[in-house]
């Protein structure tokens, strides 16, 4: 898509219903495919990351039907692990929520697979997951650089027993192991070796597994015990809640330039850790109101904060651009793994914030942003990172036009982002 220039914006007001959660959509699709029974998925996200998982399921012989708007999906579960006769390549784009869980799931059952993706996926680590799977007997080969996709997997089944996994780079490795564990040959105890980042995503995993009939004994996120040789069972109908990371941009718009913005689809009943983003806005001075199914934010006098956002790494990027409008500096700490996501997000955020005129300190695992009286007009490079495109749209609440160079990259998780953003904002020129 061509570049998009946002003229200076004055206000944000209104209501938004947020599309389905990426994290939930891809977990539910995978477990629905493995489960016994038919699953009706309601409010599935329609985006690139979900399309990659659906394409993989098609190749793996999982029958499903999709509504014309791609938000309702009925999956006929296999009731067992994937079994395919011919070698195949699966292209998983840059979807971590497809690459990591499928790496574990394809060790089960029968088959010979190549797991491929875009160039950036080949720079995103997967070694800690492969190491854990190999302890359980998996046959996985690196086809490129050691520790990174592309991978070749020959299914061998997973043994069970006791396995250690590192969680200091990505929680998705533990998620992947957890979701495959019930189909292992024996009971499995997973021991988390060292720190576990992005911990609330593990709650999403355990919640979805429970909906498909599998309970996990969680010993304070340090050990997980799962019975082997189980079958996932379809819950019948399952509703995907709105995406809490996608909600962050609208909530921040309310905090910076409300009016009031209400986001439907997430709330106190949500399982996603990123709903805690609203607490950071409240800490900065915005007025936040909750119900079970919506969150509303009204503008307040925003102050800078010094916060550890390891638990909400995706929504944390939205705090970085919100910080431009606060009084006093904002420090976002303990986000080292920003460096191994869609791009090196610590470096990219620092570079793009500086283009607006902000004074920024980039640390190894933190960023400090000084707010600005006046923002400079800038062309924002997106680095093929949907969240950079989305969080920098907030810069248009300064007094200068902001050009997003590749707005189409929001398709990874939110193809209609800019149309939705426009629906709640008013240009300064017409205010
Ligand atoms: O499990 C998930 O659905 C996700 C976990 C997080 O990744 P890390 O655990 O790598 O931080 C998050 O950034 C990603 O967008 C989605
Ligand atoms: C890190 C992200 O994606 P992925 O699921 O590919 O890890 C993200 O959406 O910000």
UniProtKB/TrEMBL annotation:
Phosphoenolpyruvate binds at residues 22, 96, 124, 172, 345, 387, 412. It comes from the Bacteria. Residues 8-419 form the Enolpyruvate transferase domain. InterPro entries: Enolpyruvate_Tfrase_dom (IPR001986), Enolpyruvate_Tfrase_sf (IPR036968), EPSP_synthase (IPR006264), EPSP_synthase_CS (IPR023193), RNA3'P_cycl/enolpyr_Trfase_a/b (IPR013792). Pathway: Metabolic intermediate biosynthesis; chorismate biosynthesis; chorismate from D-erythrose 4-phosphate and phosphoenolpyruvate: step 6/7. Transmembrane segments: none annotated. 3-phosphoshikimate binds at residues 22-23, 27, 170-172, 198, 314, 337, 341. The active site is at 314 (proton acceptor). Its EC number is 2.5.1.19. It catalyses: 3-phosphoshikimate + phosphoenolpyruvate = 5-O-(1-carboxyvinyl)-3-phosphoshikimate + phosphate. Pfam families: EPSP_synthase. GO terms for molecular function: 3-phosphoshikimate 1-carboxyvinyltransferase activity. PROSITE patterns: EPSP_SYNTHASE_1 (PS00104), EPSP_SYNTHASE_2 (PS00885). Keywords: Amino-acid biosynthesis, Aromatic amino acid biosynthesis, Cytoplasm, Transferase. It is found in: Cytoplasm. Catalyzes the transfer of the enolpyruvyl moiety of phosphoenolpyruvate (PEP) to the 5-hydroxyl of shikimate-3-phosphate (S3P) to produce enolpyruvyl shikimate-3-phosphate and inorganic phosphate. Belongs to the EPSP synthase family. This is 3-phosphoshikimate 1-carboxyvinyltransferase. It comes from Saccharospirillum mangrovi.
